[in-house]
Design a protein that fits this description.
The structure holds two protein chains of two kinds. By secondary structure, chain A is of the alpha+beta class. Helices cover 47% and strands 22% of the residues of chain A. Chain B contains three helices and eleven strands, in the order αβββββαββββββα. Chain B has helices spanning 4-8, 64-67, 140-143; strands at residues 9-17, 20-25, 29-34, 48-54, 57-63, 80-86, 89-95, 97-105, 109-110, 124-130, 133-138. In chain B, the strands form two sheets. Chain B has a six-stranded mixed beta sheet with strand order 8-1-2-11-10-9. In chain B, strands 3-6-7-5-4 form a five-stranded mixed beta sheet. The N and C termini of chain B lie far apart (39 Å). The chains are: A alpha+beta, B mainly beta. The A-B interface holds A 317-319, 321-322, 564, 608-611, 650-657, 659-662, 665, 667, 671-675 and B 37, 39-44, 48, 50-53, 55-60, 87-91, 144, 147-148.
Chain lengths: 684, 148
């Protein structure tokens, strides 16, 4: 069956189901006894399984199936929910997400999930699950090189070994060492196994046969063999394989192994205790939570949507602008003719098209929820990794933002949240000592204000240590020791956004991935927004990100030079002013003015843009637009101001890239194109 | 073979610059427009006349006469803007007149532009002689090259 045409739908829907899984799993963790949530997750998983099987993604279907089994067991109250079990389910969902991403990127969705599947099976079989089991297994893998105890046997394999002994078979553990320069490792492995299989039965190998075939090992591998041959015979036969440097054959001491197994199980029995404790402490909470959950449920209603390619929306928008321009013409014609019926019709048309314009513009708006909804899971994972206690509160997830802004927003926010959890929130012990509740609080908030959207991240953590930040900034040469004294607290806080700055003494895995908060700052600024930090030491910090509602519409000031109209973004304008020619001074061949006690260089746009003049008229006054780039200022000299306007931003296309001082264009009401001035490149 | 005709001939748009006739394959042409208001873009090469509003899309305009260094003729009612599209670039060419659409047999195309010894030589992919007309086939990649 040709399923390509359904692929996009499949990917989108799978993502929705997985997101719903994530949300419900988090809810389940809060109220582990709410079977309705389990049912919900089960339904999601079940649908996903069905879809992926239909689409032919067997691995995906298989893993979902295993996950479903676990959920089913929970549903039927065969097993109880513990954070450890949820960890594994989360892990499976992570794998599923990775697979879907792979498929979305044109891959086949194959992914190595053997470890997770094993864990799921483990849980499904109702064996007392605990994290220790996995870590001992990992440890033993790491110890391969140093200890002779290369292989670790499970119950079944031990039984096989025992029975082999009883039937007078030899059981050997064989360590094969390939030469360092061995080129075809997989081929050698194959030859070794070929010989081994003629000699007897291979019960186990380490790494697994699949990994060996994929050459995922260094130069050693271990095999457990049941055979009638003697140790020396086995060794001699294996050494015949070229590029095999060394073969050690040791007898498996069944008695010893059995004892060790007991020891391991003892360890296992100790570890579940914290799990029990966890569930008991939690069991108090659910009573209050259960009420909450039942109240919350009705809110989970999804509005009906269709997916539209953003390009089509752009085309719709362009066509509509044409219509608006014609509307303008129609209006002027109607007013000339002064025909009452025509006037009425044109007026009606104007109103309708105005509404239409609003709808088209808001069609690109998406609630920030689409970015926010991945954070609860991330915070959960991070708190577990960092051994901290954090409660994440999300406010205003329904706030809408332009799609293009939303797409860019994810990474900076991930960074800020990681930073808040890693550096902001202290360890529970420290918090306790400081008289705060053990559980830290992080609030992620979004709201509209004017023409902007604010996204804030507030934590009640340690705050920013002024001395520490200054010390670091001085040592990195970001500020000088003298100027450091005079900086305000806010200025100091913003130093952590400077490039090459990291407040962590030790670079951690969580936030020290080689990129600092400077990347956050530059991403947000590239979106036309800005970021500020408020912080009180010991009380917490507030990161506030201000973003424009949309990237495609900006407020500008239209100015005229000769007959040409240019647009200057309002975001870079400080104010406009009219100056007398005699107020202009010369400094280093640069014309400057004194603006409120500051020396501001003048930029004559007419010269910079080589505007053709019919005749040079000497004006007594100059119209100046004062613009800024960071701390620096400049005065742009123009002929006249036209006024402030909202414009739709357009690019100059792929042919005209990198035009000096022009960042784009827009179409004016009369259908002509006006260029948008990039103030940043005019200020040195 | 049903499409043997396509293999043997190429459909082109023929336009005029000065006294010469040029040709662009029809599949690279998006449309032909009458002249309209062009907004000058400062600090660009002389042959970039500026940008126009082509049904809501800001489209750059190149004056081929300046690009080929031939003498500019005065804009009149025959002047046209040919919108071409190449590698996701949409660009308009100002030409003196857009004449017609025709099929050029492939055999009539000579790849070596030895006939013309002028500045535009590097922009030419071939020359075709059809009936008594000499058509210069443009290499659009080259025409749009420098600003890429």
């Amino acid at each position: 069956m040709d399923t390509n045409q359904y692929l996009e739908v499949f990917i989108d829907e799978s993502k929705e189901h997985l997101q719903s899984c994530n949300e419900n799993l988090l809810a389940l963790e809060q109220s582990p006894h709410d079977l309705a949530i389990v049912n919900e997750i089960f339904r999601n998983a079940h649908t996903l399984k069905g879809m992926s099987a239909t689409m032919g993604f067997e691995d995906l279907a298989d893993l979902t199936h295993k996950m479903e089994n676990v959920l089913d067991a929970i549903r039927n109250e065969k097993i109880t929910v513990t954070p450890e079990i949820l960890d594994v389910v989360f892990e499976s969902v992570d794998h599923l997400e990775a697979m879907i991403d792979d498929i979305a990127n044109g891959g086949d969705g194959k992914h190595d999930v053997t470890a997770t599947v094993a864990k799921l099976k483990h849980i499904e079989n109702g064996e007392p699950f605990n994290g220790v089991d996995q870590s001992t297994e990992e440890l033993s893998v790491n110890e391969h090189k140093s200890s002779d105890e290369a292989l670790h046997y499970d119950e079944f394999e031990l039984t096989v070994i025992q029975q082999s002994h009883e039937q007078d078979f030899n059981t050997f553990e064989i360590a094969v060492h390939l030469r360092e320069d061995c080129l075809l490792k997989a081929a050698r492995v194959f030859m070794v196994f070929d010989i081994l299989e003629k000699l007897g039965d291979v019960i186990k190998s380490s790494p697994t046969v699949e990994k060996l075939e994929e050459e995922e090992f260094d130069n050693d591998f271990y095999v457990a063999l049941v055979t009638k041959d003697s140790a020396s015979d086995v060794q001699k036969k294996l050494l015949k394989v070229s590029e095999v440097e060394n073969v050690t054959v040791t007898n498996i001491d069944y008695q010893k192994l059995a004892k060790q197994e007991v020891a391991v199980t003892v360890v296992e029995e100790v570890s579940p205790q914290p799990v029990v404790q966890n569930t008991t402490t939690k069991s108090v909470a659910p009573k209050t939570n259960a009420n909450k959950a039942s109240e919350k449920k009705p809110s989970h209603t999804s509005s009906k949507t269709i997916r539209v390619n953003i390009e089509r929306l752009d085309i719709l928008m362009n066509l509509f602008e044409e219509l608006v321009i014609d509307r303008g013409r129609l209006q002027s014609i109607a007013s000339e003719l002064n025909h009452s019926e025509l006037n009425e019709t044109v007026e009606r048309m104007s109103r309708i098209s105005g509404d239409l314009q609003n709808i088209i513009l808001t069609m690109r708006m998406v609630p920030v929820e689409t970015v926010f909804n991945r954070f609860p899971k991330m915070v959960r994972q991070l708190t577990r990794d960092l051994h901290k206690k954090v409660h994440l509160e999300i406010i205003g997830a329904e706030t809408e933002l332009d799609r293009t802004v939303i797409d860019e927003l994810g990474d900076p926010l991930v960074h800020l949240i990681r930073n808040a959890l890693d550096h902001g929130i202290e360890n529970p012990e420290i918090r306790k000592a400081a008289g705060k509740p053990e559980e830290g609080k992080v609030v992620l908030r979004a709201y509209h204000s004017g023409n902007h959207v604010f996204i804030e991240l507030e934590d009640d953590g340690a705050g920013i240590n002024r001395e520490k930040v200054l010390e670091k900034a001085i040592s990195r040469g970001i500020v000088s020791a003298e100027s450091a004294e005079s900086l305000t607290d806010n200025q100091v806080n913003e130093l952590i956004l400077a490039s090459g700055f990291s407040t962590a003494d030790v670079i951690s895995d969580i936030s020290g991935r080689g990129v600092g908060l400077d990347v956050v700052k530059s991403t947000i600024e590239s979106l036309g927004g800005n970021i500020t930090i408020d912080s009180t030491e010991g009380r917490g910090s507030l990161f506030s990100v201000q973003l424009p509602l949309t990237l495609s519409i900006i407020s500008v000031m239209l100015v005229e030079i000769e007959k040409e109209i240019y647009a200057i973004p309002l975001s870079s304008i400080i104010e406009t002013s009219i100056i007398r020619k005699s107020d202009i001074m010369n400094a280093h061949n640069q014309k400057v003015i004194d603006f409120r006690g500051k020396v501001v260089p003048l930029v004559f746009l007419e010269e910079i843009f080589e505007v053709p003049r019919n005749e040079t008229t000497e004006e007594e006054f100059h119209s100046v637009v004062l613009v800024r780039k960071g701390e620096k200022m400049a005065g742009l000299v123009v002929d006249s101001f036209i006024g402030q306007q909202e414009i739709v931003l357009k690019s100059l296309g792929n042919y005209l890239t990198n035009v000096f001082a022009i960042s784009g264009a827009t179409i004016l009401g009369n259908g002509k194109v006006a260029l948008i001035i990039d103030c940043n490149s005019l200020i040195k | 073979m049903a499409n043997s005709l396509d293999i043997e001939s190429v459909k082109v748009i023929v336009f005029q610059l000065g006294d010469k006739e040029y040709a662009i394959p029809v599949n690279q042409v998006q449309g032909i427009e009458k002249t309209m208001h062009i907004t000058r873009v400062p600090k660009t090469p002389k042959y970039v006349k500026g940008v126009i509003n082509l049904r809501g899309v800001v489209t750059p305009i190149i004056d081929l006469r300046d690009r080929f260094n031939v003498k500019s003729s005065v804009e009149n009612e025959n002047t046209r803007i040919i919108i071409i599209s190449l590698d996701e670039m949409e660009v308009g060419f100002i030409v003196d007149a857009a004449n017609d659409v025709m099929d050029i047999p492939k055999v009539a195309i000579e790849p070596q532009p030895e006939v013309v010894g002028s500045y535009e030589e590097e922009f030419i992919s071939g020359v075709a002689k059809v009936d008594r007309r000499l058509l210069i086939l443009l290499n659009l990649e080259k025409v749009l090259d420098t600003l890429k």
